[in-house]
Amino acid sequence: MALFDMPLPELRAYRPQIDEPDDFDAFWAKTLAETRAHDPAVSFEPVETGLTGMRTWDVTFAGFGGHPIKGWFSAPADAEGPLPLVVQFHGYNGGRSLPHCWGMWPLAGFAHFVMDVRGQGSGGNVGDTPDPVGSGPSLAGFMTRGIEDPESYYYRRAYADAVRAVEAARSHPLADPARTVALGGSQGGGITLAVGALVPDLAAIAADVPFLCHFGRAVTLTDANPYAEIARYLKMHRGKEETVLRTLSYFDGVSFAARGSAPALFSVALMDQVCPPSTVFAAHNAYPGEKEIEVYPFNGHEGGAMFQEAAQLRWVPKALNRAV
């Protein structure tokens, strides 16, 4: 593993022209209106975890299409609220896992909600949420499901679910809606950028080595999955490049970043071949709000790992204090 992208000074100045569709905002307004037409149907069921330092609820809410989406809501055991709320999105093919895996933010005095990304949860952490929507031909994984039409593309459902996740988590009596932070790494970082644009009153966001950014460059720069799923699809489905890239233009984290306003903490790893540094900097540099970025020169897609978590624990309270 070695540096394979641009030098850091060029990355810091990198502002590519993104081929954004004219109806980008209208598409997402329509998607969220359709999603919100369904009753949110939020339920919080207490669960026993064996942890004495926090309480946890098994959450179900209605996401895109009214489909049931799972999550865990946790809070410090003795909390009375309202508490600052962290809504977290996990990485590609992960899942909500088990409640004891999410103790960091409750131990720091926060309410915490982790959303189970639909259809995933068999490649790392276990998940509990099916995706009942079918698609046309696709490559194994999630990147090409419904990829020839933005209406049917997999991430239309996932991003809409994520917006509803914020709304569901905010409805818990221990959560303070005015102090809500969205964060995640890799896929979760890309979803965080989408949520940061689609939920305009967030107090802060933190996107760690975000995936789902600058698709046009990513699919030709790296051979690593998951972006390589798209390249392999196009290798077989010859002549579909324009159609596929048009679909992806509705889901590009750079376009969402350009609409962000909450204080934002990014991170990037300069040897990351899964989410190449130039794709991360494209999103960071497009972000118009207050922002910082942590750079890990000798790391791959693991990024800062526990060091980035420590950075978030320092940064998030400061961002919330400035937002009050």
TrEMBL record:
Q: Where do the coiled-coil regions begin and end?
A: none
**Matches recorded under Pfam families:** AXE1
Annotated Acetyl xylan esterase domain ranges read 1-316
**Gene3D superfamilies, sorted:** alpha/beta hydrolase
Instruction: Give the InterPro entries listed for this entry.
Output: AB_hydrolase_fold, AXE1_dom, CE7
PANTHER family hit by this protein = CEPHALOSPORIN-C DEACETYLASE
Q: What is this protein called?
A: Acetylxylan esterase
Q: Please give the organism.
A: Streptomyces pulveraceus
Tell me the lineage of the source organism: Bacteria, Bacillati, Actinomycetota, Actinomycetes, Kitasatosporales
